[in-house]
Specification:
Blueprint: E1 2-3, E2 9-10, H1 15-35, H2 60-66, H3 72-77, H4 79-82, E3 84-86, H5 87-93, H6 98-102, E4 110-112, E5 123-127, H7 128-139, H8 142-185, E6 196-197, E7 203-204, H9 209-227, H10 232-235, H11 245-248, E8 251-255, E9 258-261, H12 275-287, E10 295-303, E11 314-322, E12 326-335, E13 338-348, H13 373-382, H14 388-403, E14 406-410, E15 417-418, E16 421-422, E17 424-431, H15 439-450, H16 455-461, E18 474-486, E19 516-526, E20 529-537, E21 543-555
Antiparallel strand pairs: 1-2, 3-5, 4-5, 6-7, 8-9, 9-11, 10-13, 10-18, 11-12, 12-13, 14-17, 15-16, 17-19, 18-21, 19-20, 20-21
Helix pairs in contact: 12-15, 13-14
């Protein structure tokens, strides 16, 4: 037992503990010696001096760690030589490696606690001029270091781009596989409408227009994929108009009153997505949110900005009014967080017992006597007098027309003229190879076709054309708003008494797959704007839709310079 002189008796330590205490005392002595300030000699010649100003007030830390005699004043005055660099800066700016920086004989460094977080490792600080001397020696010269730095930067950029392209490729592959798997797993079941009586008491049921549309889409999708030379529908920007109208109008419901486009078409030399497609897709979305006893009778829409074909459009339907005879819906089309299109549409319970009136159908040749626009384009292309630049233009037009789901013929008949200029144009239009859809979807197809050759008629009437010269050159053509009013004829009325009146509110009073005459005129154009009116007739002369549109129609004319009023010194009279 050993008296600790504190009132306690403690056991004597063993020999191993004594060795540990002795070694700890030796290490503490070494640390104290290492941390002692540098001794000052009485002889000034023996004291180290600053390498810059010969002052004896040198920094002991720099002398101990970096073996560099320099005073505090010179450190602050010459940071380009005596500032401290972190390990990251040495690796990034001077391209030094970790083994080189850890070697204290090659690169002496100062250890300092990390100021960002106490649990982080100590910072390694290096003297700038020592780092630069070692880097110049390693790379040969500062210019050689710059060359190596640029090479590595370019290589990193290439590797980053390569990695991004590979990840994008993998994402596309996974997306395509998931889409096909989803379509493969989807189950389709027919839903039929009410039974319709036919001869001998045998009844039949037909599918509703929405599900009939879906069936046709499923059939037509694979036909398009097999016939198309590119896989645009699933792979890219959908910048080629689809060959079947049902695919162009197709939207998917992602939430209640919320729909999303599945394909978008950018016409040739257009600023954005085809306006008729945006109108018809918005109309399909709105019709899906209306009860079946109501029929569309009008729509009014504004194009706020052009739509990009690379991003799907989301259609948000709002139920504004639920009346007994009329209901109203609004549709906002949103792309990239911005509203690009607004539409108001109204639906009515049909009143076939009310009196009717319409303008007569103009006297034009039958569609069988008119030529397709593709034939007219081909004739211009084969004409040896056509300029080579125009040949390419019409070749592009021919390719686009051949793939369009809407067939168009120019009805060159009795068209009014004033001063040798045509003021009214007529076209025969129909959707290519479609079944007899029910009335709601027929109106969506008609809305799609109503935007074709519409505002461009105003530029033709004014004699403006692309590629023209001076005041006859068309600089801009864009739609501002679009309106359609639908009027339908009653197919069957058995009695004038309301109680015994029989009518079919959703009967197909027109078929978009048959020829419709589109008569267009332009009553007024000014201030870079023009308004056009249109009327659509069936082959037997029934007016089924009236259209109106205003758009920007600008000639390539510069704005005249403003003339300042001449200055005068005359005094005003009281």
């Amino acid at each position: 037992m050993v008296n600790s002189k504190g009132g306690f008796l403690v056991d004597e330590g063993n020999k191993a503990d004594e060795d540990l205490r002795r070694k700890e005392k030796e290490r503490e002595h070494q640390r104290n010696v290492h941390n002692l300030d540098m001794p000052m000699f009485l002889d000034p010649a023996l004291n180290p001096k600053c390498r810059e100003c010969q002052s004896m007030d040198i920094d002991p830390t720099f002398l101990k760690v970096f073996k560099c005699s320099v005073c505090k004043t010179c450190q602050n005055a010459k940071p380009e030589k005596y500032s401290l660099l972190t390990k990251t800066e040495c690796k990034t700016d001077y391209l030094l490696t970790d083994p080189e920086l850890r070697d204290e004989e090659v690169m002496p460094h100062l250890l300092k606690a990390n100021p960002h977080k106490s649990t982080y490792a100590n910072m390694m600080l290096f003297l700038r001029f020592q780092v630069e001397e070692f880097a110049w020696k390693k790379w040969g010269s500062p210019e050689a270091l710059d060359v190596e730095y640029e090479r590595r930067t370019e290589e990193k950029k290439k590797n980053k781009n390569k990695k991004f392209e590979q990840s994008l490729k993998d994402l596309r592959k996974r997306t395509k596989e998931s889409i096909w798997q989803k379509r493969k797993d989807e189950e389709h079941q027919h839903q039929f409408g009410p039974t319709e009586g036919i001869k001998n008491g045998v009844g039949k049921q037909g599918p509703t227009w929405k599900l009939s549309l879906l069936c046709t889409q499923l059939q037509q999708r694979f036909v398009v994929l097999l016939n198309s030379s590119t896989f645009i529908m699933e792979e890219g920007l959908n910048q080629v108009e689809h060959e079947h109208i049902s695919t162009s109008l197709e939207v998917e419901q992602i939430e209640v009153n919320l729909f999303r486009s599945k394909s978008l078409w950018l016409p040739l030399r257009a600023r954005g997505v085809f306006g008729g497609q945006v109108i018809s897709q918005a109309l399909v979305s709105a019709t899906s949110c209306v009860r079946s006893e109501f029929a569309l009778h009008s729509l009014h829409c504004y194009f706020l900005t052009s739509a990009s074909p690379s991003t799907p459009i989301v259609y948000s339907v709002e139920r504004l009014r639920e009346g007994r005879s009329y209901v109203t819906r609004s549709v906002k089309a949103v792309q990239n967080g911005h509203i690009i299109f607004i539409m108001l549409c109204s639906f009515q319970k049909p009143e076939p017992w009310q009196p009717t009136h319409q303008w007569s159908m103009p006297d034009v040749p039958a569609p069988e006597q008119c030529e397709d626009e593709e034939v007219a384009y081909m004739r211009v292309i084969q004409d040896p007098k056509t300029h080579p630049a125009m040949v390419q233009f019409f070749q592009d037009q021919l390719t686009e027309r051949a793939r369009s789901p809407i067939a168009i013929k120019s009805a060159k008949g009795q068209q009014e003229a004033e001063g040798g200029r045509i003021v009214r144009y007529s076209y025969w239009m129909k959707a290519r190879d479609i079944p007899v859809y029910e009335a709601p979807f027929q109106k969506c197809i008609l809305s799609y076709a109503s935007d074709m050759h519409f505002i461009s008629t105003a530029s033709r009437i004014m004699g403006l054309r692309r590629g023209g010269k001076g005041a006859e050159s068309l600089a801009m053509l864009s739609t501002l708003d679009h309106s359609i009013w639908f009027y339908r004829r009653v197919l069957q009325v058995l009695s004038y008494k309301f109680a015994s009146l029989t009518y079919y509110p959703f009967s197909n009073d027109f078929h978009a797959g048959d020829w419709l005459l589109y008569e267009i005129d332009c009553p007024r154009a000014a201030s870079g704007r023009a308004i056009v009116h249109g009327r659509m007739y069936t082959r037997d002369g029934k007016l089924v839709a009236v259209t109106s549109q205003e758009g920007v129609v600008r000639a390539n004319i510069k704005e005249p310079a403003l003339q300042q009023a001449p200055e005068t010194n005359a005094q005003p009279k009281l």
